Amino acid sequence: MPTSTTSKLVLIGGLYLSQGIPNGFFRHTVPVVFRESGISLEKIALFLPALYVPWMLKFIWSIFVEKFHRENYGKYRSWIVPLQVLTAGVMVALSNWQLGSSIALFVFAVALINIFSSIQDVATDGQAVQLLERGERGLGNAIQVGGFAIGYIIGGGLILMLMNSLGWNVLLVAMSIVTLLSTIPVLQSRSLQPGQNSKEVSGGILVFLKQPMVLRILLMIAAFRMIEGFIRSLLPAMFKDWGMSLAEIGLLLGVFAPVSLLAGALAAGLLVNRIGRLRALLWFGGLQALSAAGYLFLASRDGPISVSSALPAVLVDHFVSGMITVALFSLMMDWSRRKHGGTDYTCMDCIGVFAMMLGTTVSYLLAAYGGYWLAFAAAIPLVVLSLFVVQRLYSRILQHPHWQKLQPE
Question: Which of 61, 100, 127, 191 is such that its CA lies 20 to 30 A from the CA of 349?
Answer without folding.
Answer: 191
